[in-house]
Design a protein that fits this description.
single chain; 515 residues; alpha/beta; six-stranded parallel β-sheet; six-stranded mixed β-sheet; 18 helices; 40% helix
Length: 515
């Protein structure tokens, strides 16, 4: 029997309130402003919406002109995943670099400064930090976005990040619950499966999320991953056992006792859209305990918003989605908006200028025993470039060539991909060495251990030029021996700057260059 709805207008407003859509352009489209007036309570920004800090501040002011109590969210992890600096690279190192330093005060200060910049641009929700324990080195989507592979290390830095970010008045959205670190599949493309038992889940994946809840994280983002030990049929985003039975459940009952906002990961990701469909998946997510439906990374139009709004209304009227559940979700969205308006900011001293570069310098490691002579003349950079995952995107530049060129004008570079290696690594390396001429060569890799073509090409290059310096800008694993090897623990612009300083011997005396 269909549920009797007391107020159609209230139901429609609640259905709009739980949607977190994106849009295209650097100004708000008319359709979005109309829907804000009708009840839409949260929007998502992406790199396509950002041109400059001043433009972004003007955009958020325009949005708040239509609805003052508005949640404006963005995916700004720093490091490899940046939207504020999508076209130039981040001024802050990512999680793996902060975990490598293992100074929670530094992590807190970096997160606070990042939060200050977001707040200055009018953003009040950040889909960060990533609390995933990167226990699987083959993980194609987390990697340097994690603080590391040790649950306790990840937990203490997750808590510090939450505290720092929220001290700037920006709500943290800790992700990807219940943990995306033990996957070998990218949920943007398919549905990952984690076969860990419940004991492993409690002792590994959930440790950082407990720390985040204890630190007061205002939001948690669900992951599109299947954990048969928890729910054999539905991924966490659609699973009552994961969201209601684990994340919401009281600590005394074995849950995490989280009372804040649950936001889904992007619903267009194929782990959901290709298995359940966008509309059906959204209904199931709300019914399972999610409060805000993130959509708009790819689908950024009014039709999508109206289709999902109508699907939620229809589900309530047909008894598939309890009206009380939808009302509770909408109330949680509005409650977080009230928190952001009243959140205390300015607590404690501002971090020292250049905190991001300082952190990147401290994270840099010489991971081989082979010494090297600082570069004093133009070099040649061979950048072995893997296909970027969707979370990182291919718009953001990476590598050390630009920073080395700034210090050593005349430095050349070539980007090499898997396609370039298809004809044979010997031919690829011969081409590189011909272009390099007599200049010293610097090889830049990213997650070398995950890309056999890259490892083969680097091996061939090192056989021809044994003194080539290697810079790993991904997760360092078993570095090649017999040649200088630097690990930056991420590909942020400041990580490249720290590596270029070390390669040329120009690192400031007060900042440790490499141990």
């Amino acid at each position: 029997m269909a549920t009797v709805v007391r107020s159609a207008d209230t139901l429609t407003r609640d259905a709009l309130a739980v949607l977190q859509p994106g849009f295209t352009g650097t100004t708000a489209p008319d359709w979005l402003l109309r829907r804000l007036d009708e009840g839409l309570a949260t929007v998502a920004l992406f790199g396509r919406n950002v041109h400059t800090p001043a433009q972004l501040a003007a955009l958020t002011a325009q949005l708040r002109g239509a609805r003052e109590d508005l949640l404006i969210a963005i995916d700004e992890e720093g490091g490899d995943v940046t939207r504020l600096e999508v076209r130039g690279g981040s001024s802050f190192p990512g999680n793996l670099a902060l975990g490598a330093v293992d100074d929670t005060r530094l992590t807190r200060d970096v997160a606070r400064e990042l939060g200050r910049r977001l707040a200055d641009c009018g953003i009040n929700v950040n889909w960060a930090p990533s609390a995933d324990v990167n226990s699987n080195p083959a993980n194609p989507v987390i990697g340097v976005r994690s603080f590391g592979a040790d649950p306790e290390l990840v937990a203490r830095h997750t808590a510090a990040y939450v505290e720092g970010l929220q001290s700037a008045g920006v709500a943290a959205c800790t992700k990807h619950f219940p943990g995306h670190g033990d996957t070998a599949t990218d949920s943007h493309h398919d549905l990952p499966r984690i076969n860990a038992d419940l004991a492993t889940l409690q002792e590994r994946e959930l440790v950082p999320f407990r720390a985040a809840v204890a630190a007061g994280t205002r939001a948690v983002m669900s992951a599109h991953i299947l954990l048969p030990a928890l729910d054999a049929e539905r991924p966490a985003t659609l699973s009552p056992a994961a969201l209601h039975g684990l994340l919401r459940a009281p600590v005394a009952d074995g849950g995490l006792g989280f009372g804040g906002l649950i936001i889904t990961d992007g619903m267009e990701m194929r782990a959901i859209s290709a298995t359940y469909g966008l509309a059906r998946g959204s209904v199931l997510a709300l019914a399972a305990g999610a409060d805000a439906i993130c959509v708009g990374g790819g689908l950024a139009d009014e039709d999508t918003v109206l289709r999902l709004r109508d699907a939620l209304v229809h589900a309530v009227r047909e008894g598939e989605l309890p009206e009380e559940r939808l009302a509770d979700a909408a109330a949680r969205v509005r409650a977080l908006a009230r928190w952001t308006r009243n959140a205390a900011t300015g607590e404690g001293p501002a971090p020292a200028p250049g905190i991001g570069l300082t952190a990147a310098r401290r994270a840099l490691r010489l991971t081989s025993t082979t010494p090297y002579e600082p570069l004093t003349e133009p070099a040649y950079v061979a950048a072995f470039t893997p296909l970027a995952n969707i979370a990182v995107g291919d718009e953001t530049p990476w590598g050390v060539a630009a920073e080395l060129t700034r210090l050593l004008p005349g430095t050349g570079t070539a980007a090499c991909t898997a396609a370039d290696a298809e004809a044979g690594t010997r031919a690829l390396v011969d081409t590189l060495l011909t272009a390099a001429g007599d200049r010293p060569v610097v090889a830049v890799v990213r997650d070398l251990h995950r890309h056999p073509w890259m490892a083969d090409a680097l091996h061939t290059l090192l056989a021809a030029r044994p003194r080539t310096a290697v810079v790993e800008m991904g997760v360092p694993q078993a570095p090649p021996q017999g040649t200088p090897h630097l690990a930056t623990h991420g590909a942020a612009r400041v990580c490249a700057q720290a590596a270029a300083e070390a390669l040329t011997g120009r690192a400031p005396r007060e900042a440790p260059q490499v141990p």
